[in-house]
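Readers outside the structure-tokenisation community will struggle with the description of the input data as it stands. For illustration, here is how one protein appears when written out as sequence plus structure tokens:
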Amino acid sequence: MEVERVQAIASLSFSANTIPSDFIRPETEQPAITTFQGPVPEIPTIDLGDPDEGNLVRLIADASHEWGIFQVVNHGIPTELINKLQTVGKHFFELPQEEKEVYAKPQGAQTVEGYGTKLQRDLEGKKGWVDHLFHKIWPPSVINYQFWPKNPPSYREVNEEYAKYMRGVVEKLFRSLSLGLGVGGHVLEDAAGGEELEYVLKINYYPPCPRPDLALGVVAHTDMSTLTILVPNDVPGLQVFKDDRWIDAKYIPSALIVHIGDQIEILSNGKYKSVLHRSTVNKEKARMSWPVFLEPPPEFVVGPLPQLTSEENPAKYKAKKFKDYMYCKLNKLPQ
């Protein structure tokens, strides 16, 4: 096993009550020092079942502009299905190490798919306290089942059903975001890839950490997706940067957390904001989350919607192929 998994490091660290130095963040990032402790505004929670579409559009557009993140309830995905998704994902991470390694991301592969630990280049050589599993769940033409765990046996069926329900949520969110920009209901989704939009599921597994005051699960970042739709487990850890402060996201059972990603910020020419966020870790319990990243196909070109640019309001972003955007982002190169 060439790569050291955080799960293995964690089990050794508790006896020493310390963590390896490459997981210790600089003081400017340490959660014990940088998390805001006073009263904070709450991330907006929106009822996706609101029969008043005008109201729903306004709430989603406002949250996307002001926060870049919101939670949705009454979204139509059965709670029982969310519980099953979490159960099969947890089961995978509790398998023996050698069984998980069967799904390891192939060395030198161009894809993010597979079981892994490190995702992007860190300029200081620091590491996040997290292991992950990535695989695409929609459309069927891009699915590679080699990265879908065969154990537990129900893993595939549960994830396929989740993808089916997720499509309905995605359609509603894109329509509302589109109408909120004053363009037709299909415009934004079409400009993000339309029927070819790829749904990439990631399971984040943050093992218990003896020094959660010093480490981060995932360092501060914005998502390169169009949208990210996430379910967490009940261990808090998501933090959002708002008004120059790191604030904790409140856990709402069965709610979906929606992040505006970089591609929607670009398409909206900056009206909607890609949210800066990070993950903290816990001493007692493993934290887990299941984000679905909605990504344009690699060759698809994304740029500001022409309906939103003019001489008075020129394009603030370059149009580029999503694969080129992704390469620059992961390698910390200017866009």
Notes: The chain has nine helices and 14 strands. Residues 155-180 form the longest helix (26 residues). The CA atoms of residues 92 and 206 lie 14 Å apart. The mean pLDDT is 94.
